[in-house]
């Protein structure tokens, strides 16, 4: 038997916040310190597709970071902006 809520509607999943940023430094454990568009700093890791396809991310690269609405200081790098 499937779990269903009383109203029959699904709960809306909290959406992540996507923000452009710049890699400041590489940290141990495949982590990166990123300066976000609004001058805040966050620690981010590479998304699985970037690791899978061996996309290199170096200090100075422009990236797109996906932040959780719960903790705006941690995130996931989902895109490396080519040619930036």
Q: Main attributes?
A:
five-stranded mixed beta barrel, 1 helix, 5 strands, 84 residues, mainly beta
Task: Describe this protein's structure.
By secondary structure, this protein is mainly beta. The protein is 6% helix and 43% strand. It contains 1 helix and 5 strands, in the order E-E-E-H-E-E. It has one helix at 48-52; strands spanning 17-27, 31-36, 41-46, 62-67, 74-80. The chain has a 5-stranded mixed beta barrel with strand order 1-2-3-5-4. The protein is globular and about 45 Å long.
Q: What value does the Rg take, in angstroms? A: 16 Å
End-to-end gap = 51 Å
Low-confidence segments: none
Q: Count of DSSP E strands?
A: 5
Could you state the order of secondary-structure elements as H and E?
EEEHEE
Output the structural class.
mainly beta
The helix content is under 10%
- Strand percentage lies at 35-45%
Largest sheet geometry: 5 strands, mixed, barrel
Mean pLDDT: 87
How would you describe the shape? globular
Q: Which strand order do you get reading across the main beta sheet? A: 1-2-3-5-4
The number of helical segments is 1
């Amino acid at each position: 038997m499937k779990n269903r809520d009383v109203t029959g509607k699904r709960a809306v999943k909290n959406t992540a916040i996507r923000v452009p940023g710049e890699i400041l430094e590489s940290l141990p454990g495949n982590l990166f310190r990123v300066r976000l568009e609004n001058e805040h700093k966050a620690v981010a890791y590479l998304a699985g597709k970037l690791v899978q396809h061996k996309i290199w991310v170096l200090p100075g690269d422009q990236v797109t970071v996906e932040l959780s609405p719960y903790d705006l200081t941690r995130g996931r790098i989902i895109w490396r902006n080519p040619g930036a």
